[in-house]
């Protein structure tokens, strides 16, 4: 069993009952804090999977890649748990702006 997790309680649960933890779009700058919920012995265990799903776009057109990445992330920012995670990861202003836009039914910017 590998548990999908973002925030500390789910990461700790994964460490307790699973054979790994899988993040989706986790912030690299916040992973150390997130993984603090996993005991050091478990983090060092080669049989305990720690993964992070990230979108990848191989192209020479950086503008197109950024537009595609933005469309992919739009689905995630609609979910309160992801917004709360990104606030915890240091993106509070950005998430507050997104929540304001959602409350005003502005989804195009």
Q: Which features characterize this protein?
A:
three-stranded parallel sheet, 109 residues, mainly alpha, 11% strand
Question: How does this model look, in words?
Answer:
- The protein has 2 domains: 1-54, no CATH class; 56-109, no CATH class.
- It is globular, with a radius of gyration of 16 Å.
- The chain has helices at residues 8-17, 31-35, 40-43, 62-77, 80-88, 92-103; strands at 3-4, 20-24, 49-53.
- α5 (80-88) packs antiparallel against α6 (92-103).
- α1 links the parallel β1 and β2 (20-24).
- Helices cover 51% and strands 11% of the residues.
- It has 6 helices and 3 strands; from the N terminus they run βαβααβααα.
- The longest helix has 16 residues, at 62-77.
- The chain has a 3-stranded parallel sheet.
- With 109 residues, it is mainly alpha-helical.
Entry summary:
This protein is 51% helix and 11% strand. The protein has 109 residues and is mainly alpha-helical.
The mean pLDDT is 94
**What's the number of structural domains?**
2
Query: How much helicity do the residues have?
Result: 40-55%
Tally of contiguous helical segments: 6
Arrangement of strands in the largest sheet = 1-2-3
Please provide the count of β strands.
3
Shape: globular
Strand content: 5-15%
Structural class: mainly alpha
Q: How is the main sheet built?
A: 3 strands, parallel
Radius of gyration: 16 Å
State the order of secondary-structure elements, H for helix, E for strand: EHEHHEHHH
Low-confidence stretches: none
Q: How far from one another are the termini?
A: 38 Å
């Amino acid at each position: 069993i590998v548990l999908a997790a973002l925030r500390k309680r789910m990461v700790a649960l994964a460490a307790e009952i699973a054979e790994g933890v899988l993040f989706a779009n986790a912030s690299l700058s916040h992973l150390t804090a997130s993984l603090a919920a996993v005991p050091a012995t478990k983090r060092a265990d080669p049989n305990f999977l720690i993964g992070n799903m990230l979108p990848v776009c191989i192209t020479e057109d950086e503008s197109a890649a950024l537009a595609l990445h933005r469309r992919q992330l739009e689905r995630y920012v609609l979910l309160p748990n992801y917004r709360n995670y990104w606030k915890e990861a240091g993106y509070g202003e950005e998430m507050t702006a997104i929540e304001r836009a959602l409350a005003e039914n502005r989804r195009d910017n």
